[in-house]
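User: Could you go from structure to sequence for me? I need the amino acid at each position, not a summary. Structure tokens:
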């Protein structure tokens, strides 16, 4: 089978899965409990049950493992740094604690307090900025002054290959899929899922979905290159990547069949359906794949054997309640 543009093949991805296995969960894939009106089959990969509450733990563990393995000399590793509004910050703090190093994480002052609390509880040092430019500058300052290595939230083979292990598990659990629908923020998850599906189930299509107010990947695809700045206005803050990057963009450009958009109202309806049908309390990003199946992909995937990636659950009760009650 053809190379996947710098990402390991199936055997290599299985080695990655074995390497990170002590620190991540093999999350279950379950049948949707209610029958589909179009008579198709529906499965859900429950990454919202992953350690740290999202798929991000996979990429962070894989990246930091390899960073530490490459460290030479008797001195302790200076540690890692990262920038994130939430899920990647939690995952980096978790991975650093698991692997015996330290993390200094840069977050916006507007970050959800619950996520900030979880980062602190995992032992990471926190620095706050006001704007995206602040976050970049602060991460660069930490790298320069302390020698820490940045763990990118979505870019690069290490992150993508960690995310791909979720796709391996899905492919092993559910053979013969027609399509997988994956939420898109920065693109690390959909790149990883596409890599795994490409190698394990090459006839299966991979669709990305992003919020209408953060549809930067579609803008990048239209432009033909990864856009360095994207305006974000959506309730799905986990999918609100402020820019895209060349490596993950190139994988999506070549190997993801299509990226579609859903509205914030569709995300809220998806959250309600996840609760009503599966009793899952999920953040808005987690409902994106379901919203796409019931919206822009409904006709195309009618009667098909489809899997959804339920990506995360890091949301506080008050915010969740507000979304559930919003009309």
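Assistant: Here is the amino acid at each position, in order:
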């Amino acid at each position: 089978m053809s190379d996947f543009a710098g990402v390991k093949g199936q055997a290599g991805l299985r080695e990655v899965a074995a390497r990170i296995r002590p620190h991540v969960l093999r999350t279950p894939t379950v049948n949707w409990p209610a029958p589909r009106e179009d008579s198709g089959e529906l499965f859900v990969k429950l990454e919202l049950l992953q350690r740290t509450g999202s798929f991000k733990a996979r990429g962070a563990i894989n990246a930091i493992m390899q960073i530490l393995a490459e460290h030479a000399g008797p001195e302790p590793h200076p540690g890692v740094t990262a920038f994130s509004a939430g899920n990647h910050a939690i995952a980096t703090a978790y991975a650093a604690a698991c692997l015996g190093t330290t993390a200094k994480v840069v977050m916006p002052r507007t970050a959800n307090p619950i996520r900030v609390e979880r980062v602190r509880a995992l032992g990471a040092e926190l620095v706050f900025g006001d704007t995206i430019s602040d976050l970049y500058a602060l991460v660069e300052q930490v790298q320069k002054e302390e020698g820490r290595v940045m763990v990118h939230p979505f870019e690069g083979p290490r992150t993508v290959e960690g995310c791909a292990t979720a796709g391996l598990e899905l492919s092993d659990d559910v053979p013969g899929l027609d399509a997988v629908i994956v939420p898109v923020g920065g693109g690390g998850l959909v790149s990883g899922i596409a890599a795994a599906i490409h190698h394990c189930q090459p006839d299966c299509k991979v669709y990305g979905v992003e919020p209408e107010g953060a549809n930067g990947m579609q803008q990048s695809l239209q432009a033909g290159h990864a856009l360095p700045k994207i305006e974000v206005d959506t309730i799905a803050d986990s999918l609100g990547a402020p820019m895209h990057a060349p490596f993950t963009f190139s994988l999506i450009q070549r190997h993801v069949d299509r990226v579609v958009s859903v509205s914030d109202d569709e995300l809220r309806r998806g959250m309600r359906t996840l609760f009503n049908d599966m009793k899952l309390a999920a953040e808005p990003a987690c409902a994106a794949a379901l919203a796409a199946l019931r919206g822009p992909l409904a006709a195309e995937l009618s009667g098909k054997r489809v899997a959804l990636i339920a990506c995360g659950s890091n949301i506080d009760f008050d915010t969740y309640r507000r979304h559930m009650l919003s009309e």
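One structural detail worth keeping in mind: The chain is about 45% helix and 15% strand.
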